[in-house]
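To: structure desk
From: M.T.
Subject: fold request, one chain
Message: Could you run this one when you get a chance? Sequence is below, nothing fancy, just the single chain.
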Amino acid sequence: MKLNISKDAPNSGEITLEKFFQFNIIGNKKSDNRHQIDTFNAICFKTEIDTFNAKIDCEVIFTDFGDAKGKDKAKISFSDRVRYFDEISILQQFWGKESYRNDNREDFITQCLIVFEIEPTEKDALIKDVELIYETLDKNSTLPLIINEDKDGVTPFILLPFSAKAHGGNKVRLEGDRSLKSLTILRDKIALGFWFQKTSNVVIKNQLNSDVINSEIIFNSKFKSPDFKIYYQIGNKVDLKKNLVSIKGGGDSSLDAEIVRVYSQSEITYFHDWAELGIYNSALLRLQNSTKVNKQISIEVKSVSSELLLEDVEATQSKEVHVFILSIFISVLISMGLDATRLASCDFTFFFPDIPIITESLIWLFVCGGFILKHLIYSKVYLIKENCKRVIKSLAVFVCFWVFCCFFIEKKMFTEWEDADILVLLGMKFSHWIQFFPLIDIVLSLYLFFSLIFYRYYEKNNRNKEHWFTKILKNFFGVR
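Reply: Done. Structure tokens follow.
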């Protein structure tokens, strides 16, 4: 996920985000391996020179890792959520219990006199400003809010809600009403407020059985914010294994931060849309706003980059059960095949090829080890090309048939080749066609073994080397 924020107001000076609130909802995995991703962005801004003539463009980009090339820009839907500003009781939980909204202009004027400590002699000018504000917002059927939060570095301001507008491609344009330029006494106390939602269905990058969420917010001009919040919603059975946050400020300054878990969402009332998206039955994460983080962002912020490594706890436990069952199966299979009585039986050893130096016991161990490697493909511990995977699954059927024959089929049921028909290849003797199956499986297991080693190498080097070695990995071993 990426959010690019740029201003379209060259003479507006520095932009202050009085409130920046981003809420990212990572939906549960669907049957097609896709996740619904919803990002809600609340942006309240004012400029150093001319707030009402300024425009901000927000471009939201989701990356889909499910296409044939590995990744691509995903299709995104847009929804304006300006109505969230009507829910004053919900906003008071986040932006101060003293925050205020009223459709009565006289009451709003009284509140302005108290909060902003305006002199009684300036009341006439205040009344004119309030009248203009209500008339302007009436076009969008919205009302002004006074945001009043008891928090260090945050001063009270008047929030004027406006609708965000889709603006070509994945961009959203945020702009107010120029008629407000005639404001006088309240001019420097106003911020324009916008709230919008972007939704997409994507395949998330998977690394070592964990979903990797990369989120980036890039500011293409000089921005600062006294109140900057980022939240994530993940499944209740998903664990945050690892996270890394990097915040870049002015110059070359950079600061590391972290994502932490929130445990109190059941005590808070949320918007109806968020409830439908499962916020009460999910886990919440947030950017930890330390003193250093708040100080850096309140001076200048150029980008905030986050990487989250998410592990499905339920899926991990299920895999542990599968591994336990597989280990029991392999142990029993090995002990049955290495039984001395069985190895002395012609009915059992008939199905093994005659290979110099390599005994029937060693061949049996190779075949049993091959089952483990195949399990790594079936459980998607590592990935290879789909066409290679289909071939491997098909060949696995033959070795399963061979194992069945070793235990349950008697030698007399097969017609052994005559001495003149015995096939000799590289010193190996084959007196029946079924003896080819374990040899084919051993070759296949070696292929999988080297694929696994090369895949780990490929992952360790971040898949970013393009030379002859990695081309072999991709084309021959199917690593991706």
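Reply (cont.): The chain has two domains: 2-311, 338-475. Let me know if you need anything else for the meeting.
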